[in-house]
Design goal:
The complex is a heterodimer of chains A (157) and B (342). With 157 residues, chain A is α+β, with helices and mostly antiparallel strands. Helix content of chain A is 38%, strand content 25%. In chain A, a hairpin with a 2-residue loop joins strand 1 and strand 2. In chain B, 39% of the residues are buried. Classes of the chains: A alpha+beta (157), B mainly alpha (342). Chains A and B meet through helix 1, helix 2, helix 3 and helix 4 of A and helix 4, helix 5, helix 7 and helix 8 of B.
Chain lengths: 157, 342
């Protein structure tokens, strides 16, 4: 009976501890403690004036692109770029470029370029901050405005 | 204390009040749980292999920029050898555990293998949450009784320890969904009071789908339907919020295990069909441990399920008592008398 009670208490403690840690790591109150997570997924609805960062490719393998296109649209050239991991890394790179955090920019480029832009020779690209209405952009591709934050060249690998 | 008592009574309200067949039901539940555990290890191997098949080359080639604590030791070893060791551990452990699930060390190895692989996958700039639920279940399963399960099956105490640990895994998974539901409710009220579009708006899901699909320039099978008719998405989103928020309550009510298992599976299916987000690991996990829950009643009684629904059940009972009070009471009294005699 004592073992059973202890087991019940241990399970209750695990649930409470997880919930507390989940709440504390919510929206960066404290850093995420792997493998605990707040499970804050899709809890806010994108606004009709949404903002994000994009990576616009201007040249691949020494060939200029006219017009330049966003990296996710070149999934045949950069198959790993159309993943959520790439999107999240681009958001971090954009934020670091906007804040002029050069150390963070170099660290993120060191991961992003070989991982998502590798295998196609030299790549030139711009980091762009975009504003858009999600439904309108989905239907027409139209953006409200774009702002170039930085330009980089990846020599290729 | 009184509040705790009330909470306990509310959470456990569906527990059967007839004790005649409780031992037989415990035995059947034990057999079901003892069958499910090695099955989960079979699927664990599938999960591991589906990840490694896709990612093994990339994890070997690109140096991980932010090593999480479970794989921090890779800094002090040959990176290639270390990553290969993680691959071998993640593959071998579920094979050992499906063959010898009764040994705690095999179950501990599965947890360790999943933890290492998930940490490695999350050391490339973004923490990937797809394996969190599976890793958590593997952790709880370490505490299943050690030794020969067949011999222990004769003891009520041993069976109860086994089942309680299994329920712990179910409750932990349900907690994840409840947290997710609570944040959605919080976000909805926050945006509502800020005068923004919130989850309560019928078009909310359409905005979510459009934004998500454009992040990866991807298409989804049914996303365009909601984008063409945004109001259709409203009830789907509200239903998902209800199912998620009350998942932990459902864990306490065996009559709801099957319904919540099916609903959560459909929720993940919806995420795939609408948002192109394949949380396949979690979909398989909730299907296995909730739809085939050892605690579900042998026969599904739709009325009992409706009565036990969180909040909605209270409303339904309030409606039924105001509309058909005398007959219902008579029937219930007659059933109780019969049960006492039987």
């Amino acid at each position: 009976m004592r073992t059973y009670r202890r087991l019940q208490q241990a399970i209750a403690a695990l649930l409470v501890l997880y919930a507390v840690l989940g709440v504390l790591t919510w929206r960066g109150i404290m850093p995420e403690v792997f493998p605990v997570y707040s499970w804050d997924l899709f809890s806010t609805i994108p606004s009709p004036v949404e903002r994000d960062m994009g990576l616009r490719i201007t040249s691949v393998g020494g060939q200029p692109l006219n017009p330049p296109v966003y990296v996710q649209q070149l999934s045949t050239v950069f198959p790993r770029a159309a993943t959520i991991d790439a999107f999240v890394t681009i958001q971090s790179l954009g934020a670091a470029a906007r804040d002029h955090n050069d150390t963070e920019v170099e660290k993120l480029r060191g991961y992003l370029e070989p991982t998502f832009l590798g295998g196609a020779g030299a790549v030139e690209y711009k980091v762009i901050e975009r504003r858009f209405d999600p439904l309108r952009r989905w239907q027409t591709g139209e953006l409200l405005d774009e702002k170039t934050l930085a330009s980089f060249r990846f020599p290729g690998r | 204390m009184k509040a705790l008592r009330l909470l306990r009574r509310w959470l456990y309200r569906s527990v059967a009040d007839d004790t005649a067949d409780i031992i037989a039901r415990q035995r059947a539940a034990y057999q079901q749980a003892a069958f499910l555990v090695p099955m989960l290890y079979v699927v664990t191997l599938y999960v591991v292999m589906s990840w490694l098949t896709f990612w093994w080359q990339q994890w070997l080639d690109a140096p991980a920029p932010t090593l999480l604590w479970p794989v921090a030791w890779l800094r002090w070893t040959d990176a290639h050898a270390g990553v290969y060791f993680i691959y071998m551990l993640a593959m071998a452990a579920p094979i050992l555990a499906m063959l010898m699930p009764q040994h705690r060390w095999t179950r501990a190895l599965v947890f360790l293998g999943l933890l290492e692989m998930a940490a490695l996958a999350s050391s490339f700039g973004k923490i990937n949450h797809s394996l969190h639920a599976w890793t958590s279940v593997a952790f709880v399963f370490i505490f299943l009784p050690n030794g020969y399960w067949e011999r222990r099956a004769d003891s009520i105490r041993e069976r109860q320890l086994f089942l309680t640990t299994f329920w712990g895994a179910q409750a932990l998974i349900c907690l994840f969904y409840t947290l997710s539901g609570i944040w959605k409710l919080y976000g909805a009220f926050q945006q509502l009071f800020a005068g923004e579009m919130s989850a309560f708006h019928p078009d909310a899901l359409a905005y979510q789908i459009a934004t998500r699909l454009m992040e990866t320039n991807s298409q989804s099978m049914l996303g365009p339907v909601i984008l063409a008719h945004p109001w259709v998405g409203g009830p789907l989103l509200w239903g998902a919020m209800y199912i998620e928020t009350f998942a932990l309550v459902a864990a306490f009510r065996p009559s709801l295990h099957r319904l919540w298992g099916i609903s959560l599976m459909l929720l993940h299916l919806g995420n795939i069909l609408l948002l192109s987000i394949p949380f396949l690991e979690s979909m398989t996990l909730v299907s296995l441990i909730l739809i085939f829950s050892p605690f579900r009643p042998p026969v599904t009684n739709p009325r009992a399920v409706l009565r036990d629904l969180p909040i909605l059940g209270l409303l339904l009972r309030a409606i039924s008592t105001t509309t058909s009070l005398p007959n219902t009471r008579v029937a219930t009294e007659a059933q109780r008398t019969q049960r006492r005699r039987g």
